[in-house]
Amino acid sequence: MSTSAASHLSPAFPARAPWGTAGKLRAWQQGALDEYLDRHPRDFLAVATPGAGKTTFALRIASELLQRHIVQQITIVAPTEHLKKQWAEAAARIGIRIDPNYSGSSGPANREFHGVAVTYAGVGVHPMLHRRRVENRKTLVILDEIHHAGDSKSWGDAVFEAFEPATRRLALTGTPFRSDTNPIPFVSYVEGSDGIRRSAADYTYGYAHALADHVVRPVIFMSYSGEMRWRTKSGDEVAASLGEPMTKDAINQAWRTALDPHGSWMPQVLRAADKRLTEVRKAVPDAGALVIATDHESARAYAKMIREITGTGATIVLSDDVGASKKIEEFSEGDSRWMVAVRMVSEGVDVPRLAVGVFATTISTPLFFAQAVGRFVRVRRRGEVASVFLPSVPTLLQHANEMEKERDHVLDKQKKGEGLYDTEDALLAQANQEKDTPGEQEQFSFEALESEARFDRVLYDGAEFGLQAHTGSEEEEEYLGIPGLLEPDQVQMLLQNRQAKQIARSRKKPDAEADLSEKTAAQRPVVTHRQLSGLRKELNTLVAAWHHRSGQPHGVIHNELRRVCGGPPTAQASAGQLQDRIAKIQQWATSAR
């Protein structure tokens, strides 16, 4: 191997270089490399947004250190088995031989390789094995997504014990912050004026800079609200609109109702996302889409929906599937439309053709959200635009509006009342537990009964566009039909034009045709919240009685009432519409005697 081979790494290695980049290294990669070679530090933390090219940067440093005989071998530590293989394949293309199958039980590492790739979990099991390796030969340790070393105290201790004697340590991450205060090994913390210690990176390249450099794609967030109905453990039926102000418990239950595979919300959103994918593929023929699911059961149900919508199957990737890595690789290299995954494609996995995403999970910490959205920002040519569909949940909308915000890992808890992270306390464990099924803190004793999706708004570059509209409506179609190749400023201009057109159209509608959400307050019937609640309760009581009499499910009865009487779901229906349904079901009961 020579430095010549490494110096000609593509700036998007191992994918194709994007439009307008240099033939060698991107500006940030060259800047970080210059910083590293000027100082030759033992520890170096590089923070770069997902898709910016951290692999290229790390392999360039590895080649320099090997060529100069500063190190004799390399150890790469990655979060998952799949990423070990991905690192080995990337390194092999420039002549660095990495063994991704190394195991301490198989004896010493093969000297034909320049190094090995292992997981954080593997280091946690045998830290002394890795310590002996770095003590015996001068070693560069590349710690990919270093924040995982703080997933637990035992992992952090093991990583420190294993690699403390290393000659050089290069730490990489796209999301340097954690929601907990577990210290990350080999990361420097600097105390601020407020007495709080925060992580200090040696080089930072954030999403905003990468977007300005056309290194990553702009992301359009398509937000969907809708009407939800569920039954609590006490037997009460609750109806609410997703996206409206509610208690935390109500938001969580409405959210889970939306994602329930038996409702209508997910099929409607998947259908909209598939329409968006079709539009994108007009300009990017091999563009793919990904659903990020909460658990295995939901993932399989969503894949079934996709088959019913598109007529073709989706690739399903589950974390306990021994063939998961191969499935991801085949999908990445192919041109099929859809993949459904549980966590396996949430971080680090390189599938550059992913352009459309559906965030169908209740995991909502900033860490997980940033990792998930990072799967869609990897640009291959100038003008590619990413689209991510998500529920209208305040936490997710806030994360979407803060895409360009740079964060550091906060090591010390702030005092109550000063609260940068106080509001996230209930979500901390979710980000750090590598799980596929909801934990105890996610469990709600309720039964999802009914859900309907409604297009809510588009979020882009910290701004919001659009009015609510029914799925399948002309208003929704205009946002789904935005071209798949656009410059960032063109995206904003088109969204502004679409919004102006939608507002103008809604003003011209006769009052009888306007949605309640489009009517002015003066045009809406004056009915108190208590009166509406009473009518809904009366209707639900009658539906329950008819259920016991007819044996029909509650959802079927409500759908039949909507078919006969017209109007939206119960939670959104007007007083007059509710009264019509009450009269109709009373008529059924009278006729059946």
How is the secondary structure organized here?
Elements: H1 3-7, H2 27-39, E1 43-48, H3 54-67, E2 73-78, H4 81-92, E3 98-99, E4 115-119, H5 120-125, H6 127-136, E5 139-143, H7 153-163, E6 168-173, E7 189-191, E8 197-199, E9 203-205, H8 207-212, E10 219-232, E11 237-242, H9 248-259, H10 265-280, E12 288-293, H11 296-310, E13 315-317, H12 324-333, E14 338-341, E15 354-360, H13 366-373, E16 386-391, H14 394-401, H15 428-432, E17 446-460, E18 463-465, E19 469-470, H16 474-480, H17 488-508, H18 529-550, H19 554-565, H20 575-591
Parallel strand pairs: 1-6, 1-9, 2-4, 2-5, 3-4, 5-6, 10-16, 12-14, 12-15, 13-14, 15-16
Antiparallel strand pairs: 7-8, 10-11, 10-17, 17-18, 17-19
Pfam family, one: ResIII
InterPro entries: Helicase/UvrB_N, Helicase_ATP-bd, Helicase_Restrict-Modif_Enz, P-loop_NTPase
Keywords: ATP-binding, Helicase, Hydrolase, Nucleotide-binding
Structure in words:
- This is DEAD/DEAH box helicase.
- Keywords: ATP-binding, Helicase, Hydrolase, Nucleotide-binding.
- InterPro entries: Helicase/UvrB_N (IPR006935), Helicase_ATP-bd (IPR014001), Helicase_Restrict-Modif_Enz (IPR050742), P-loop_NTPase (IPR027417).
- GO terms for molecular function: helicase activity.
- Residues 509-518 have a biased composition (Basic and acidic residues).
- With 593 residues, the chain is an alpha/beta fold.
- Helices cover 39% and strands 18% of the residues.
- It has 20 helices and 19 strands.
- The strands form 3 sheets. Strands 10, 11, 12, 13, 14, 15, 16, 17, 18 and 19 form a 10-stranded mixed β-sheet that branches.
- The longest helix has 22 residues, at 529-550.
- The radius of gyration is 26 Å and the shape is elongated.
- 48% of the residues are buried.
- The model is unreliable at 1-23, 414-444 and 516-527 (pLDDT under 50).
